[in-house]
Structure formats: C-alpha cells, structure tokens
Amino acid sequence: MKYFYFYRVLVLFVCGFLFCGCGQQPLSGQQPLKGKAVIEEKSPKQALTQLGRDLNAARAKMVNLLSPAWFEKAETSYGKAKKAAEKNASAQKIMKYISKGRSELDQAGDFAGKSKYHLAPVIESRNKVIKAKTKKKVFIPLAKLEKDFIRLTHAVEDNDFRYIHKHKKKLSQAYLDLELQAIKGTVLDQARISLKRLQKKGVHKMVPEAYAQAAAKLKETNAYINANRYDHVGISARVADVEFYIQRAKHISKMAKNLQNKSPEAIALIIENYLHKVNESLDEPDHRNLSFDDQHTRIINSVNTLKDNYVEAAQESEKRSGQIKMMNQHILDLEGRTYEFKEAKDRLAAEKRFNALYNQVSAMFSNQEAEVYKKGRKMIIRMKSISFPVGSSVILPVNYSVLSKVQRAIHVFGEPDVTIEGHTDSTGSPANNKTLSRKRAEAVRQYFIANNVLFAEKISAQGFGAERPLVSNSTAKGRAINRRIDIVIRPVLKKTY
Questions:
Q1: Does residue 281 belong to any structural domain of this protein?
Q2: Three-class secondary structure of residue 308 per DSSP
C-alpha cells in the first residue's frame, strides 16, 4: 500500500507539471510558438536593427497579408523592443522582446507558406487584378476583396479549412471578374466616353446608322475581351477599329449638319467639286460633264492604273537590285582573284629571291666547312668543321673562320629569325648529352650576339642531344658526323604590295 500511494502521488505531480507547461493556448486557435533559437547578435542594437530588416523583407514577400495575425504580433514585439531600447532598458529585457518577435516572425513565415499552398488560385487571381488595375474606380471593389482575402489568411492561421474551402473559389472568381473590369476600363473607357459625348450632342439622332455601327463595334470588342482578355494584340486592333468608327460617326454628323439647310443643287455641286478635285490630282481631264457614277468610275480606273504602274516599278526595282547584287558579288570575286594572283606572284618572287640567296650562301662554304640545304622556307647550314673540347661548350679560335662565314650568310637575308641547334653523339647519358648540346648551341648564340649579328630576340638556341642522329653512332666516323651545330635560318620575306 505504501508503494502504491507513492506512485499515485508521483503520477499526479507529473500530470500537474505537464498541465502547467501546456496551459498557454495559441491566440485565435493558432499553433504555439516553435521556440526557434534567436540568432546570436553582437549587441541588442544590432539585433534590433536586424529584426527590423527581416520584418521589411517579410513584408516585401507579402507575409503581412499571408499571415496577418502572427506578423502583427512580430511587429508589436519589435515595437516594444524599440521602446525599451529608447528608454535604455536592460539588454536582457530588449533581447527578450527581440527573441519573442523573431519567434513570431518565424511563425508568420510558416503560415505564409501554408497560405500560399492552400490559397494558390486566390493569390494568382489577386496578382492578376493588381497587375491589371489602372482606374481609380477599381480600388473600391478591390478594397472589399482584400478584406475577404485577409479573412481567408486568418482562417489559414486558425486552421479553419471549412471556411477556406467554402470561400476561396468564390473569392478567386471575384478577383478574376475585377481583373476583367480593370482590363476593359483601361482599353474601352475612352471609347465609351467618346460615344456618350456623341449621344449627348444628338449624333445618334442625326446620323443613326453611323452611330449604330460605332456602338456595334464597341459591343463586339467588349464581347471579344470577355472571351480573350489576354490577347493584347487582338484587343488593341479591335479598340483601334472602335475609335475609327467613332471618329467616322463624328465627321459624318458634322457633314450632315452642314448640309442640313442646303438645297439639293448646292449638295450636288459640293459632291461634284469633291470628284473634280480628285480628278485634277490624278491629272485626268475635266469629267464634270459626266454623271457622278461615271466620274467615280474614271477615278477608280485611274487609281488602279497607278497601282499597276507602282507594282511594275516595284518589280523593276527589285530586278535592278538583284542585278546590282550580282554585279557586287562579281566585283568581290574579281577582287578575290586579284588578291590570289598577287599572293601567287609574291610567292613566286619570294621563292626566286630565296633560291638566289641560297645559291649565294652555298658558294660561301667548302664541302669540308659546311653543308647548306633548303627545307621548305628554311635554309640550314650544317657546320661540319666546328669542334669543341670533349665535354665542353667553349668555342675554340680554330672555329672563328667558319663562324665568320655563317655571320655573312645570315646578313645575306637581312634580319631573319635564326635557331641554333646543338647535337651530340650517343656517348654518355641522354641527360648529359642534352645539356651539353644546349650549352654548345647557346655558346654559338652568345658569339653571334656579341658580334652584333642580330638582336638577341631574333636568335634562339636548342639542344637535342643524341635525339636526331644523321647516321649510326656505331662507328667513330658516324659519331663525328652526328656531333654538329646546325644553323636554321628563316627569312622574313617582305611582300611586294
């Protein structure tokens, strides 16, 4: 019994604790605060500023409309935090309001998302009417619909889905009806006003047929907008048609008024005068001795002749344009052929000059000193007689004579691009051979630079080691042939045009 009594007291204590902890009910049947952690700020002032920015950002996203109750609470907490800061209250008190405001703003954001989901058709219709409204008279019914919209978002916050289901379709249609009214107000109000003015002036009585045609066009356009409210091109064309018939009725009524007190002869003379002026502008003879129908027929025939002449002139112009285009293309082709001929002529001249220079350079060297040959647009001087001490890149005086001839050969070409290639036999390691060949080529390069053969940027040096043998390295003679310096000359040939 003692243990039973203890457990009974324990259960009652826990239930009482839970009851106290859950006693606070959400306002208006809303969900309780989620208690999301407040982002740590450096100071209450910075936290307050950030909360204000977040409220503005939420307002820009329509959170104040999609979750009005929770957003209002967040604004209230923000206002309290602001007043507390102005009164220099403690940081703890300010942060308490800020924390509460942030939690309420979080709730507002969550309910705004729910509103977007449950009220998606209503929101879409609302956005359409806001985009379409341009007339002041649309604002009055829109204000009423906005109140109904707020009631719906309150229903989302209250989880009152019965109310939402009952009213959202009706509100969505009301927004669409108002959108249609706004579109018509934008495009048809001016036409309606113009037609009403004509009616006040008695035009509908003076020229009833012309007035009826303008009114019929307005009615047709109104019906078209009902069925095609987003066809901006079609609506614009029909509105222009309405304006045309309104202006027509206006001018016909003015003419009718002017003719109202005139005699039949005076009216006939006015018509004759109009026909005669048209004939004169067409350079036609005076046809006033004919009936009005015949005069009209002559005018139509003259106009048709002018149209035929215009078509023929346009066709001839198009034909001439085609001929000019073909001639321009022919000129371009001739210019292209001329350029190709000049290019070919320049290449032949360059080859002829290169061959002459090649013969001149070849004559400078004996067979023992160097071998000279062509390779495409390049000339290669393979120096047979140049030699270096074993493992060294030092140029010996014995080589100065052949190097001087190479200098003269380079000068024959003016200022060509020159590459000095160093080669070794296969004796030794590949790495050492490559390094040695590069050093020997660089030594020759520096020799030419020092002797002002060319600017430094016009001469380059490369070492290939034993990668490019001319003959087999199996004999002493073969290895001697492979140890060489090649001077590669690339002439910079100037065009003759």
A1: no
A2: helix
Could you tell me if 145 and 47 lie in one domain? no
Task: Write down which residue in 204, 228, 253 finishes a domain.
Answer: 253
**Tens-place pLDDT, residues 125-134:** 999 988 886 5
- Alpha carbons 182 and 82: distance in angstroms, whole number: 42
| DSSP-assigned states of every residue in 128-155 | HHHHH--SGGGHHHHHHHHHHHHHHHHH
Residue 107 CB coordination number (10 Å): 24
Total count of domains within the chain: 3
Q: Is the pLDDT of residue 203 over 90?
A: yes
Do both 97 and 139 map to the same domain?
no
In-domain check, residue 355: no
Residue 34 lies in a domain: yes
pTM attached to this predicted model: 0.52
pLDDT tens, residue by residue, 34-66: 444 444 546 899 999 999 999 999 999 999 999
**Tokens of residue 125, six digits:** 């219709």
- String of DSSP letters for 411-453: HHTSS-EEEEEEE--S-S-HHHHHHHHHHHHHHHHHHHHHTTS
Question: 62 is in which domain, residue-wise?
Answer: 27-118
